[in-house]
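SAMPLE LOG
Freezer: B-3
Tube label: C17
Construct: single chain, 321 aa
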Amino acid sequence: MMHEGNRRHYVYAYACHENERRLCEMELAALFGQPAGTAGYVETDRRIAPSRSPFISYRVEVLYAAEDFDSLASQAAELDLKDRTFKVICMKLGDMLAYSYEEQREFERRIGGLVRGKAEMRRPETTLGLMSIDGRWQLGICHKAESVWLHHKSKPRNYSTGLSTAVARALVNIAVPEPDAVKAIDPCCGMGNVLIEALSMGIDIVGRDINPLAVRGARINLRHFGYGDDRVSLGDMNEVDELYGAAIVDMPYNLCSVLPPEERERMLSSIRRFSLRAVIVSTEPLAEEIRRAGLRIRDYGTVSKGSFIRHIWVCESRVGG
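STRUCTURE (predicted):
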């Protein structure tokens, strides 16, 4: 029998560095609407492209589920891949971690011998993921994530202290977990890292920066990856006069000075005015200032690189509801 009720069910495997664990948790919670925990996988009925997240490695679309291995094996015998090549892999998560290498290979051989198709270990057309989670065996079609963000690391223009492509991609997913009909803005876009990650996921976004050199660099980078450079404009974020569904704001800073408090307050008030949801990033603690600006803090975390720490707040505008 196929998965209960023939309802689509997915398991996403993920991994992250300890320095990015909180960011990973925030992103997965936004994408799936539930806490990710620390187990290395998420079970959900939500279907997203596994390549959206820099932390997701696989998505398994569950075809069969059973309370024990033999019952799952009998279901696997019903699977007809119509002469397509395939292989079976044990997903190293959940209960599967308790089995030895030899036991896992035996599970793969037993299931592979029952599926109707052509076994091919090197370059199969279909990969079947075999899992045991909380005592329940599952088998499904496995889709490997493509590390799209890695391709964006090499760009013509960069800031040495700018957001990494992985962090930028996660921030976009936190701000815009469901892209349909959402227009986003990065009002301090710098060299366009956030813009490139968002556009690569099909998200409608525009950028703005008060620094002409940053605008020029962002336009060069956008053209480099085949995106229109007219999405970036020169201007002060405090003068944005359109309402956006989401904003990703990496507050300006440098290593020698910080923004005056009155300028931070003005920027935070502007974020509340032009966005319904915002992800605010700063090297300084701003929680009280964010609240005073009239923004509701929905989530908070940090991401670090050595001693350099970025604070991240997920906020909603009280005006926007």
